[in-house]
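Risk register update: the risk of archive-format incompatibility is retired. Evidence:
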Amino acid sequence: MQILIYGCTRLTDALAPILVQDGHQVTVLDPDSDRLALLRKQADVSTVWVAEPLMLDYLMQGDMAGSEAFFSLTGDDHENILLSQMASHIFNISRVMCHLSDPQLQDFYQPLGIGVLNGGPDSLSAARDLLEE
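Archived output:
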């Protein structure tokens, strides 16, 4: 399965190698080229350096249109929500998850069909469960 991850965070560092090990093709987008380089050493992933996260050019370069799953894992809840909505409603990706720290936002967006990862110990299994649906 083709998976696009936006945000190279500790959660991404843990999730990407597992997804690759499960046989998925993973591309990670992030504005921090040093973090992307470290991730490439850790896992066989494609990476795309981005200057502005919400520019469609970067999402297209990461192959958002061809992705079967999308994870937005930045440290910014609002950016994650916006990117997840774009993946779901503009690119019609059915498997979408985003990291949300704020419990009120988690409660609001979960019933709307966006999978929510809270960064807790169950996040990796929740991400893998989404891919098995």
